[in-house]
């Protein structure tokens, strides 16, 4: 637990003193203390403790669709068995794909497709301080490594995904990359610290999206870039849909704007040069059931008689990617 607080301090050493470091460490300590009493988290920690050490000469490849850590044959069969048990115990693997010591993890989402949609359009990440809000198991934090950011910090409040990142980092040992078990709203004010902020797949889960966009603006430096991805509805008007109860079986979806409405939200929250770089319907090639998840997936969320609609009758999932600069 202190380990994470120490890692955070070490990671931020080049920019010390930072008035928000101690409160941020305290938030992490409190979350991990709470998790220590949780049976599922105890199991995750046992799985992580059972992992074999990272072999000498381990290499990673962050440039391909699958993030590769280690090579086939680098671990003996007992070590591979321990690894497989840990990976399976940490299901569902929603984001990916990964390849660990030759073992392919086919995640629910082919997250490489989203990365391909954005990577050429964003400001180059080399030397930048990056925050990824809702980083899940860190797939994008790892893809970013190919561009050598000065810092890649993730936020992931869901225990399963946070511990998946810990497993990956156990082997990858990346010195300028860390995930914190926190929601963005739990952070102390980190005014103007980040150069790039990823906020993908999170906005529709928030009850007060405009307040959140304003808070995101505050932690970017002037001219810093927001990479925003969220569910949208079709149409040109500045309109927003609020599901009566569930959207695609999710009970925590509050606002789905048109791209036009989203652009207005951003402009009214302190951003400029707002541009939409992509709108894509989510397909079965991008989100599907695999052996690495034990839950439903896209095909179960759509109306079998009309795949343009969710089971609740709303427009089927489509996601927009927008870039904007902090004013
Ligand atoms: N307030 C919050 N603060 C931080 N994290 C949050 C919050 N609320 C939810 N999360 C976390 O954000 C992630 C949303 S998934 C996107 C993952 C990745 N970004 C992706 O674009 O593939 C949704 C999707 O499937 O697109 C989950 O891991 C939540 O626990």
UniProtKB/TrEMBL annotation:
Which keywords does this chain's UniProt record carry? Methyltransferase, Transferase, tRNA processing
Q: Which GO terms describe its biological process?
A: methylation; tRNA wobble uridine modification
Q: Does the keyword RNA-binding apply?
A: no
A single Gene Ontology MF term assigned here is: methyltransferase activity
Q: Give the InterPro entries listed for this entry.
A: CmoB (IPR010017), Mo5U34_MeTrfas-like (IPR027555), SAM-dependent_MTases_sf (IPR029063)
Cite the Pfam families for this sequence. Answer: Methyltransf_9 (PF08003)
* Source species, domain of life: Bacteria
Q: Does the keyword Cell cycle apply?
A: no
Name of this protein: tRNA (Mo5U34)-methyltransferase
The source organism is: Desulfuromonas thiophila
Q: What is the lineage of its organism?
A: Bacteria, Pseudomonadati, Thermodesulfobacteriota, Desulfuromonadia, Desulfuromonadales
């Amino acid at each position: 637990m202190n380990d994470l607080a120490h890692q955070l301090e070490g990671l931020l050493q080049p920019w010390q003193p930072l008035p928000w470091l101690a409160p941020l460490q305290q938030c992490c300590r409190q979350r991990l203390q709470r998790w220590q009493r949780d049976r599922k988290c105890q199991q995750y920690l046992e799985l992580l403790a059972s992992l074999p050490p990272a072999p000498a000469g381990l290499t990673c490849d962050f440039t391909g669709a699958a993030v590769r850590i280690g090579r086939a044959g680098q671990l003996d069969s007992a070590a591979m068995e321990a690894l497989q048990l840990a990976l399976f115990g940490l299901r569902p693997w929603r984001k990916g794909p990964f390849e660990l010591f030759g073992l392919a993890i086919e995640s629910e989402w082919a997250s490489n497709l989203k990365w391909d949609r954005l990577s050429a359009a964003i400001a180059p990440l080399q030397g930048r301080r990056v925050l990824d809000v809702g980083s899940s198991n860190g797939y994008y934090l790892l893809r970013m490594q190919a561009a050598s950011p000065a810092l890649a910090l993730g936020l992931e409040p869901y225990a399963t995904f946070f511990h998946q990142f810990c497993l990956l980092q156990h082997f990858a040992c990346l010195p300028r990359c860390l995930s914190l078990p926190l929601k963005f709203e739990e952070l102390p004010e980190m005014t103007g610290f980040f150069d790039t902020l990823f906020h993908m797949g999170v906005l529709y889960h928030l009850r007060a999206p405009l307040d959140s966009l304003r808070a995101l603006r505050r932690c970017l430096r002037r001219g810093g870039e927001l990479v925003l991805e969220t569910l949208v509805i079709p149409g040109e008007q500045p309109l927003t849909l609020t599901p009566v109860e569930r959207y695609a079986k999710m009970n925590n979806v509050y606002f789905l704007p048109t791209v036009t409405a989203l652009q207005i939200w951003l402009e009214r929250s302190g951003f400029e040069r707002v541009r939409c770089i992509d709108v894509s319907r989510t397909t079965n090639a991008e989100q599907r059931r695999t052996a690495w998840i034990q839950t439903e997936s896209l095909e179960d969320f759509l109306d079998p008689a009309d795949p343009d609609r969710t089971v609740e009758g709303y427009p089927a999932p489509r996601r927009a990617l927008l870039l904007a600069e902090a004013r």
